[in-house]
Design goal:
single chain; alpha/beta; OB fold (Dihydrolipoamide Acetyltransferase, E2P); Rossmann fold; 2 domains; seven-stranded mixed sheet; four-stranded mixed sheet; elongated
């Protein structure tokens, strides 16, 4: 996701926010992105400057790419603008959208769709299970390292496992492991994510999984002591109602994947009287950044 900065000649360049500050630092290209994303970004930035879109109207540009090299992108702007020409949908860019996104929030939130062309999804195989996901769906970007994470999770399952996958997204954890357990229920609050999860269940002819669009804290009653619970929450960690239900009806095993080790440790502290921390594995999903992913396996005490 790129922000923008304005040059002296009133053209724009891509920028990132300085860590912990509101200052923008111009970048070209992005050292964290692959060549495909950088090439697509360069093409779209040229179009933005050709259209003379004012800096004040630009919020962000989101570009996603799969391992195959396909890309889709969305430009978020703070004014409802229309243009005489739009980027060409071709080999490297399979889909492009423009969203109006209110200036009242810094988030890249789609408030109105202004333009769309091409496809709105990408496909990525995880452990030989092809998964489809949308531009704004949560999906891990480092597929090789994520696959190693899935392989470690697989070791915790048996053919008799009844799995609950909270904060499931499009099913990127639960669905590639569908031959390793008895049943699985995917839970996520994102309507788009669950729509893709159901498509992935159908397209892969998976018979032992179902998906529901609901906030995790509003469906805690489905947790039983016989479940294995997978949780991959947002950076804020687990909702207090989810923790309360786990303490009231403790599932026999919890598989906790987190992008925020601080909130993960806080949540595990709440559970330590009922659970033993069997293992913790750290993954470098984002090289050249300080972000680390943690996988904790918790087993219910006997």
């Amino acid at each position: 996701e790129y922000s923008f900065s304005e040059k002296d000649d009133q053209t724009v360049s891509f920028a990132f926010f300085e860590r912990g500050k509101n200052n923008r630092i111009a970048i070209s290209p992005c050292k964290l992105a692959n060549e495909t994303i950088n090439n697509t970004a360069s093409t779209l930035l040229e179009w933005i400057n050709d259209m003379a879109i004012p800096h004040r109207s630009l919020k962000s540009l989101v570009i996603r790419s799969n391992e195959k090299g396909d890309t889709i992108a969305a430009l978020f702007i703070k004014d409802k603008l229309a243009f005489d020409e739009y980027p060409e949908i071709k080999e490297s860019l399979q889909g492009f959208k423009i969203y109006y996104s209110t200036h009242k929030s810094p988030a890249s939130r789609p408030d109105a769709l202004l333009y769309e062309a091409g496809q709105e999804y990408l496909k990525e195989p995880i452990k030989d299970t092809p998964l489809t996901y949308g531009l704004l769906s949560f999906f891990q970007v480092n597929t090789p390292v994520f696959t190693k994470t899935i392989e470690n999770i697989e070791k915790e399952l048996t053919p008799e496992t009844h799995l609950l996958d909270f904060y499931s997204g499009v099913g990127s954890i639960g669905l590639p492991l569908h031959t390793k357990y008895k049943t699985c229920t995917l839970i996520d609050s994102s309507k788009q994510a669950i729509e893709y999860a159901m498509k992935n269940i159908e397209s892969n002819n998976i018979k032992n999984c179902e998906a529901h669009c609901v906030e995790a804290e509003k469906i805690t009653e489905i947790i039983t002591e016989n479940h294995v619970l997978i949780i991959d929450p947002p950076r804020a960690g687990l909702h207090k109602d989810v923790i309360a239900k786990i303490l009231d009806t403790p599932p026999k095993k919890i598989i906790y994947l987190s992008c925020n080790l601080t909130t993960q440790a806080r949540d595990i502290e709440h559970l330590h009287e009922l659970y033993t921390l069997k293992s913790i594995t750290l993954y470098n999903y984002f090289p050249r950044t300080p972000h680390i992913e943690g996988l904790c396996i918790l087993e219910r005490k006997k």
